[in-house]
Amino acid sequence: MRVTEKATNVVIAAQDFRVAGLIEEYLQRIGYEVHCEYNLDAALEQLLKSRTDLLIVDGEMPEKVLGNFVEAVASVRPGVPMIAVGISEHETVSKELSSHISAFVEKPFSISDISDSIKATLRACTPK
Q1: Residue 97: left (phi > 0), alpha (psi -120 to 50), or beta?
Q2: Can you tell me the distance from the alpha carbon of 118 to that of 120, in angstroms, rounded to the nearest whole number?
Q3: Cβ atoms < 10 Å from Cβ of 30
Q4: Which of 2, 33, 38, 80 meets the CB 3.0–4.6 Å disulfide criterion with 7?
């Protein structure tokens, strides 16, 4: 399914090059504009300088690093939906983290799992 309206802008903040690359390639193929950052400071800069419709974050980061990053994103770009890949909501210790993340995609996952989560998250965040 191709994106039919203006391209949705997605930022991927990840430490796992393979997983991030696969997600990036898939999203670009179906028409999304994707910026993949492997450095969290660079990901924050990207979020600040461009319109971002969705943030996909690597849930495999150490919890404190992930928590600090999610908190920083929530403060500089409130309302940007976030999906954490590779972690379940049950694995998160921090209620703060869960309150900012719109969806969790657990491992093992497929591209269709990611795709379904993205569609559901964007649909839920689109004004009616």
Answers
A1: alpha
A2: 6
A3: 12
A4: 33
Under 8 Å between Cβ of 94 and 77 = no
Dihedral sign for Cα atoms in the order 15, 18, 23, 26: positive
Q: Spell out the residues 6+ positions from residue 123 whose beta carbon is closer than 8 angstroms to its own.
A: none
Would you place residue 2 in the very low, low, confident or very high pLDDT band (cuts 50, 70, 90)? very low
H helix intervals, the chain: 17-29, 40-49, 63-76, 95-100, 111-125
Question: How do residues 28-45 score in pLDDT, each as one tens digit?
Answer: 999 999 999 999 999 999
Look at the pTM and tell me if it is higher than 0.70.
yes
Contact present, 50 and 37 (Cβ < 8 Å): no
pLDDT tens readout for residues 64-121: 888 899 999 999 999 899 999 987 666 665 566 778 899 989 888 888 999 999 999 9
CA 94/CA 61 separation, integer angstroms: 14
